[in-house]
Amino acid sequence: MSIDQSKLSDPSIRLNVPAGDLTNATVTQGSAARIRLLQAENEQLRREKNEIEIKYREQLETLNAQLRDIQEQLNESEEKVKKVEESTILEKKENIKQKEEILIEKENEKRKVEQELRFEKEEKKDVLKKAEESEKKKKSEIEKRRQLETEKERIKWELEQLKSENERLKRERDVEINLACENETKLNASLKENERLKKELETKTDQITNEYQRRIDEKEQQRQEIEILYKEEQKKNEIEINHEEQTRKIIKEQAEQIKSTQSKIRTLSEEYENEKERSEKESIKAKEEERRRKEAEILKGKIEQENFALKLANERIQYEVCRINEKYGKEKIESEMKEIENEYKSKEQENERLKLENEMLKQEKERINQQLLKEKEEKERYKLRIEETSGKVRKYEQIEKLQKLKKQKENIKKMKENNEKYRLQLVRDGDFPIAIINSDPSDFDFADVDGKQKKIIKKKDYTTGTVSLSQELENGTWELEVQFSNQGQTGGIGIVKDTYVIPAGCQPDSNPHSQNMATYHGPGWGNGTVNCKGGYKSGNVSFNDNQIIKAEYDSEKGTLIFFIDGVQQPVYIIGIKEKVRFIV
Locations of Basic and acidic residues compositional bias (predicted)? Predict the structure, then answer.
């Protein structure tokens, strides 16, 4: 309780005492004493008031302190509540996240299991399909192999039959030849005996003329009988020769059949290899497609997993947005989002402005760089002009020197070419002796025809053999013309390395001889094929008896070209770098 000091009476003012009135002095003194009492009371009241104010202030401070404590407790409780709410929200989020992860894992496991099952089914189908195809291929291959084996056995049996028949005919012919020889010797002996008897009869007397005539008649009769037998033997021999020719023809036909069957076998094996290669390629392609399909399915599964995870994340974000809207109000969030969008737009505009400024600066920088480059290029051009003029002067001097050297070289080259032409002309015009290197004299014989042409005679029929000319081919172009006459067996011509020694019975298309030879064969050896170092190439015409086959070897170019009756054949040999000899 406070007292208004302005309402109290001032002690210096006297109340109800008129100025200059001395009669009321006692009254004034009494009022002054009252005033003093009042002042004392007033002072007492002021002290009480101050005490009360101090007391109330202390109470107010204690209340404020209590209020602060209560407020702090409330704040602490609110913070605890917030923490509890946040922890519950976090727990809920973690639970939701764990549930989502569990769902995603289960979904992924389900997809993987389905994918593995699908892959297993497809692999089983592919394995069954491949097994069926391999079984079919095996059956077809077994069938083809059986057919080829039966055909091979049949041809082998026929060949053996023909060989045995040929051997029998040879034996019979040998027996008949022996008989004919014996008859001929008997005939010669009888003729000699007749001559001797004639001489004896001339010296004898006429008394034994009748007996001599009788003996002559007997001998003449014997001679006629022997001649008849000899003619019969000749007829038999002719029949045997005809029969032998027929057997040769049959053997030749059988050999052609064997070659055709061998070619069929080769074609079938090639077809089988091609089919095998094609099936392997198809299987590789199918595996590649299967791998790509699996990769695509795996990628599809991953994309579906990502979409599922994004869907869950989107749902979670929507849930969070709804919760924030409920907590803070939709309008406030929208306004904040608009402010954020406006800030983002302003930042984008600022970025665009900065980009434009950067572009302008870049353009300015490029323009300055271009100007500098132009100045630099002009300086370089000026330097180049100076260097070009000095280089042209030096070049002109060098060209003059080079032209002089070139003329000198051309003159030297022309002189060398003329010398070489003259030397080659001497080589071509030279008369070189023809001789052979005969590794088997029992099989080959060599005879002169007209001084220039030579004849090589093969003594053994139906056997292989190769002879070479002794002349080493170098420095120029060399030609060899050959004419075969061996009842269609023909043969071949070509070249052999000068260092290679040809053995007896050499077959030119077999190893190791084929690695050192290059040959062109007739019908008995491949029907026009060209063999070179183990490989063969068809495309040339096959030749027969009495045709002129020419081999032309150019040692400068390293080429071997073949001709038949003057017509060049398309397949020839190049890249010959060593010394060689002609072979037949």
Answer: 275-292
Element (DSSP H or E) covering residue 477: strand 477-483
- Any idea which residue has 């060098």 for tokens? 398
pLDDT of residue 10 exceeding 50, the answer is no
**The token pair that represents 480 in the structure block:** 């060899």
pTM here is 0.31
Residue holding tokens 């074609």? 267
User: Hey, what's the torsion of the CAs at 505, 510, 513, 514, to 10 degrees?
Assistant: 140
Q: Give the mean model confidence (pLDDT) for residues 379-407.
A: 75
For residue 570, whether the previous peptide bond is cis, meaning omega lies within 30 degrees of 0, is: no
Q: Taking the domains of the chain in order of start, what are their residue ranges?
A: 143-310, 433-583
End-to-end CA distance of the chain: 157
The radius of gyration of the chain from alpha carbons, rounded to an integer in Å, stands at 66
Architecture of domain 433-583: Sandwich (2.60)
Q: Is 76's pLDDT higher than 70?
A: yes
Instruction: List C-alpha distances in Å: 10 to 30, 36, 378, 407, 523.
Output: 15, 11, 112, 151, 167
Question: What residues contact 100, with CB distance under 8 A and at least 6 apart?
Answer: 309, 312, 316
**How would residue 19 be classed by pLDDT, with cut points 50, 70 and 90?**
very low
Cβ atoms of 584 and 491 within 8 Å: the answer is yes
Strands 492-497 and 454-458: unpaired
Q: Cα dihedral angle (379, 382, 383, 387), rounded to 10 degrees?
A: 170
pLDDT at position 11: 44
Q: Which two tokens stand for residue 322?
A: 């709804």
On the question of pLDDT at 518 being above 80, the answer is yes
